[in-house]
């Protein structure tokens, strides 16, 4: 049997405690270093950057937007022209009154604005000559461009985000020509500023109604 001095026991205990503290500090330092390396490797971006207007359009002259010239060899231009032709043929005073009576009862569906915007992910606007992407992307691009130019006008940014929400009617069996594109006044002579004006209204029944001249 070996007797150990109490001071030796205390020294041994203190030594082990100090070693444990040192090991703990080392583990903590190693953990901080790993976290530091992780933070160094991960790049956090603003998600809205993904939906801002593409840089490739930044230098596009304004005059090249909203090009409604006719080119039957261009599939997008033909899609746009045919959409407006159907719109200008079928949108009459009677059509507008019937649709107001049908939709202004507000009894077709209920959705939050976010749900409505997400629904637009299924819609590509057939009247738009500049984009061929789901309408929800256009909604966010519009809002982001407004936010860039008018950072303090949150109401304006919101307006840009929801300005096309009415196109959701195309998800409920309405043809696109009845909900997209540039609107125009019915029940009177059509403005000379309407796109395709000279050709597209030839088969509209209201053209023969003298009350609308």
Automatic annotation (TrEMBL):
Residues 12-35 are annotated as: Disordered. SUPFAM superfamilies: HD-domain/PDEase-like. Pathway: Polyol metabolism; myo-inositol degradation into D-glucuronate; D-glucuronate from myo-inositol: step 1/1. Transmembrane segments: none annotated. Keywords: Cytoplasm, Iron, Metal-binding, Oxidoreductase. Its main location: cytoplasm. InterPro entries: Inositol_oxygenase. GO terms for cellular component: cytoplasm. GO terms for biological process: inositol catabolic process. It catalyses: myo-inositol + O2 = D-glucuronate + H2O + H(+). Its cofactor is Fe cation. Belongs to the myo-inositol oxygenase family. PANTHER family: INOSITOL OXYGENASE (PTHR12588:SF0), MYOINOSITOL OXYGENASE (PTHR12588). This is Inositol oxygenase. It comes from Callosobruchus maculatus.
């Amino acid at each position: 049997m070996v007797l150990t001095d109490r001071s030796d026991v205390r020294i041994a205990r203190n030594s082990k405690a100090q070693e444990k503290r040192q090991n703990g500090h080392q583990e903590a330092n190693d953990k901080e270093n790993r976290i530091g390396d992780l933070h160094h490797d991960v790049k956090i971006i603003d998600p809205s950057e993904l939906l801002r207007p593409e840089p490739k359009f930044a230098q596009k002259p304004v005059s090249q937007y909203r090009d409604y010239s006719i080119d039957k060899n261009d599939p997008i231009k033909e899609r746009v022209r045919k959409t407006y032709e159907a719109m200008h043929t079928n949108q009459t005073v009677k059509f507008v009154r019937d649709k107001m009576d049908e939709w202004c009862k507000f009894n077709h569906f209920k959705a939050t604005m976010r749900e409505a915007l997400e629904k637009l992910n299924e819609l590509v606007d057939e009247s738009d000559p500049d984009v061929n992407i789901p309408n929800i992307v256009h909604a966010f691009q519009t809002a982001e461009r407004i936010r860039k130019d008018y950072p303090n006008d949150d109401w304006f940014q919101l307006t840009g985000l929801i300005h096309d929400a009415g196109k959701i009617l195309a998800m409920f069996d309405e043809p696109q020509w009845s909900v997209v594109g540039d609107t125009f006044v019915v029940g009177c002579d059509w403005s000379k500023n309407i796109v395709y004006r000279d050709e597209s209204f030839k088969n509209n029944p209201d053209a023969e109604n003298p009350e609308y001249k």
